[in-house]
Recover the amino acids of this structure.
């Protein structure tokens, strides 16, 4: 019975979130099928990008460790979608792969499980209840490479099961449409919140009106590989991401991670200021905007970071 209900729950969520025009993309080989897929606004440009979701109905509440097992499967799904997108877009791989920087855009991923509202309410979807939020998981090959092909993030959420039933019990489709719009925006916004917490961003604009293509022709492309991405297929600006170090790191893995971030910062300080105007920023959730400028980070905030902000602009 529980197995059958899992199938029903998955189908209900997919009707609310998914786009049937991309159902053919769900089959990724070896009998594996992605639960939910649709296109929505990219995080860094005017283009749409794929959002990938998985959903499960559990009879009992799951621990973070148990949820991580689902995250591992989700990483495989996300890699498959990126690979298929590139294969089917030969000659025009944007926005999944920027041929200029060789950076890969972030593909938002989410996992949804059912949770009954503690107050037994039918009119609250529960996605943004902090006490019901799941963890964030990351898979990567290289430290401090947000725009690397193998760097993937997944956010996990719970959906109020009573709300889900009420939406499908409603005679009109207005409730479904309203939830779909809210959920699509919510998953994008939550991905932005996550990245703003874990990374520091800078907008890089070539000095003296220089052409970005010309600047990146030389070895600079390799120096920025995996850390930079062009802000639009015709844009003359880059967005640079640097992982926020763990100032309280004690275990060997975290200390090594901090060391690698610091080495990246030292290396870029020798290259970036000479060629680019640097503007500290955060990813923006406002329509039509992709970044919002912020004050120059203080050295005290990220202790050992060797910043290259000698000439930063915040206007």
């Amino acid at each position: 019975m529980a197995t059958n209900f899992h199938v029903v729950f998955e189908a209900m969520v997919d009707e609310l979130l998914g786009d049937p025009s991309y159902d053919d993309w769900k089959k990724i080989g070896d009998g594996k099928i992605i639960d939910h897929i649709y296109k929505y606004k990219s995080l860094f440009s005017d283009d749409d990008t794929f959002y990938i979701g998985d959903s499960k109905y559990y009879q009992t509440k799951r621990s973070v460790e148990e949820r991580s097992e689902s995250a591992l499967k989700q990483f495989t799904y996300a890699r498959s979608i990126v690979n298929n997108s590139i294969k089917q877009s030969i000659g025009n791989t944007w926005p999944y792969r920027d041929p200029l920087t060789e950076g890969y855009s972030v593909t938002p991923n989410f996992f949804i499980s059912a949770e009954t509202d503690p107050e037994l309410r039918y009119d609250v979807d529960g996605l943004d209840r902090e006490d019901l939020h799941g963890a964030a998981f990351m898979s990567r090959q290289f430290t401090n490479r947000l725009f690397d092909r193998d760097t993937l993030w997944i956010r996990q959420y719970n959906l109020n099961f009573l709300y889900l039933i009420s939406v499908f019990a409603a005679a009109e489709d207005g409730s479904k449409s309203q939830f779909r719009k809210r959920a699509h925006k919510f998953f994008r916004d939550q991905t932005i919140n996550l990245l703003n917490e874990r990374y520091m961003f800078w907008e890089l604009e070539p000095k003296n009106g220089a052409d970005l293509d010309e600047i990146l022709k030389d070895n600079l492309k390799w120096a920025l590989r995996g850390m930079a991405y062009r802000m639009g297929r015709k844009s003359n600006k880059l967005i640079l991401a640097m992982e926020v170090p763990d100032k309280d790191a004690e275990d060997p893995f975290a200390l090594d991670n901090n060391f690698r971030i610091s080495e990246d910062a030292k290396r870029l300080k020798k290259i970036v200021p000479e060629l680019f105007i640097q503007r500290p920023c955060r990813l923006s959730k406002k329509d039509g905007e992709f970044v919002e400028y912020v004050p120059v980070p203080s050295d005290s905030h990220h202790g050992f970071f060797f910043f290259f902000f000698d000439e930063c602009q915040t206007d």
Q: What stands out?
A: The two ends are 60 Å apart (CA to CA). The CA atoms of residues 50 and 220 lie 29 Å apart.
